[in-house]
Amino acid sequence: MSKDFSPPATTPEHLGTALSEDGYAVLAPQGLAQWMNMPLSDLESLRPDWDALPPDDYLKDGGRYRTRRHACFVAEQDGALRQVPHRAHWQPVEYNALHGGMQRWFAPMLEGSVAHPAWQQLMRKLAEAASALRGARPWYIEAHQFRIDTAGGIGRPTPEGAHRDGVDLVAVALVGRHNVKGGETRVFEAAGRRGERFTMTEPWTLLLLDDERVIHETTPIQPLSEGASGWRDTLVVTCRAAGFQGD
Fold it and tell me: What's the number of domains the chain is made of?
């Protein structure tokens, strides 16, 4: 049986240094709350969304293990955050060999969720992290709510394999996991040999990635108990400086 390694968490005050030096950084749940200047209970109030996500109808591997919602925003340099009209998610095949080159119209996020103060604050803080990494500018943000389940025996958080996203900053928050094994996060240097692997198990653990410097993947999940339902919920947010991909 493989050993689960804990995430190498950093403190909020060292987040920018870790991200710039290592190409990635992890905030533990309490660190995330401190970074956002909000109690974890505010983030937890978003969690019910993940219990009713619509199916992802675009999986080319024929799977039915993924449900999701999607929304896009622009974060201005003055801190203003605005949601843009609902749009397709598009990636070039260079970054997503499995699902690239196609317009994928996912169900939009719920209005109450994107208006929630915790959601608004998280988007602003991620834009701040992107500006600390690349310099202050407007950021084009895409947000994805995911549930990967094991109803078919196995669920694949990253069916495209180890990849970059073609953006500047990627954030992956674990929202929760239930009755599953696997789901190990792997981060590798894009132009080197160094890598790190760990398993996020605590809700609201946040991984930040410099997408130019590292590639990442998450291993498949399986149910801990045969015949019982299992799932892994995440929030994935990307920040890109040059507009939305596909424009």
Answer: 1
